[in-house]
Please model this.
Amino acid sequence: QVQLVESGGGLVQPGGSLRLSCAASGFTFSMYGMSWYRQAPGKERELVATISSGGGRINYADSVKGRFTISRDNAKKTVYLQMNSLKAEDTAVYYCKRVPRRPGDPEYWGQGTQVTVSS
Model:
């Protein structure tokens, strides 16, 4: 079955960096785009970044452009989110998601990893 397992979250000071990983299994990873989302307390889940199946197309939310970098290693079936210059407002649970290939495809999410930016 499809599994997405995030790791790499933690507590970091403002201005610091973290790298999140999402290990995938149970499907042909190289055929799917992947996304990172986040959800802060009391707020709706928001899209942070998306990368196409081959890595050639990448999009970011305006709030993270220039600070976050999404990448993937299809051989390792893993998608990454490098987060630099972290701010308190980046505090959230971060989730990875497999991008559906066609309307009606099921959505698959990881369990999430907590990122807390605080001094």
Q: What stands out?
A: The CA atoms of residues 81 and 97 lie 12 Å apart. The mean pLDDT is 97. The first strand starts at residue 3 and ends at 7. The chain has no helices and eleven strands.
